[in-house]
Amino acid sequence: MPTHFDNLANHLLVALPSLTDSAFARSVALVCQHDDNGAMGVVVNQPSEYTLGEVLSQMEIDTGDERLRTVPVLNGGPVHTGRGFVIHDDARDWDSSLVVGEGLYLTTSRDILEAMARGDGPRNALVTLGCAGWGAGQLEQELAEDSWLTVPADPEVLFDAPLDERWQLAASRIGVDLFRMAGYSGHA
């Protein structure tokens, strides 16, 4: 394929209204890894049917933090749907972590959830079940087909904005109003 895209790790993919894959409609995905072999990321704006309290209970991790128990776990994507992924801003040496970008990490090990349950976890964290994966050249092809906008990762979008506002907020970071685009139907 002649089209070349830079490494998109530490970028948000914002689904354009023309994206027809129902698993990613109106989604925002953080690209955690991107190289010649493909890309991996997690969707950061779609709640799952679970709360963090339910996930911790299933893992037999106790917490007395009622607020933490009610935090929604996100549907991170259609790959490895039984596996947990934590996007966070804590540089400590967790058992299994990947540096996504400056001050942003992806951790898949139990120790971070145990720390969160004790009240000693990252200041900002998102917990997802599942992830999104693209084979070699697949993400580049989707970008060439105008399925996604790319936006530098933004902690406010990831950690502060309400889930239902992240799609439009992420796009607005580069001056795009998704509600004014051809193909958009419905309301936020």
What does this entry show, briefly?
The chain is α+β, with helices and mostly antiparallel strands and 188 residues long. The protein has 6 helices and 10 strands, in the order E-E-E-E-H-H-E-E-E-E-H-E-H-E-H-H. Strands 1, 2, 3, 4, 5, 6, 7, 8, 9 and 10 form a 10-stranded mixed sheet that branches.
Your description of this structure?
With 188 residues, the protein is of the alpha+beta class. The chain is 22% helix and 34% strand. The protein has six helices and ten strands. It has helices at 52-58, 66-70, 110-118, 138-144, 155-160, 166-172; strands at residues 11-15, 28-35, 38-43, 47-51, 72-75, 79-88, 97-101, 104-107, 125-135, 148-152. The mean pLDDT is 91. Belongs to the UPF0301 (AlgH) family. InterPro entries: AlgH-like (IPR003774). This is UPF0301 protein ABB22_00430.
Overall geometry comes to globular
Biggest sheet statistics: 10 strands, mixed
Based on secondary structure, the structural category is alpha+beta
Given as residue ranges, the uncertain stretches (5+ residues, pLDDT < 50) are: none
Mean pLDDT: 91
Give the helix level as a range of percent.
10-25%
Order of helices and strands: EEEEHHEEEEHEHEHH
How many runs of DSSP E, i.e. beta strands? 10
| Number of H/I helices | 6
Query: How big a fraction of the residues is strand?
Result: 25-35%
- Gap between N and C termini: 36 Å
Rg on CA atoms, Å: 16 Å
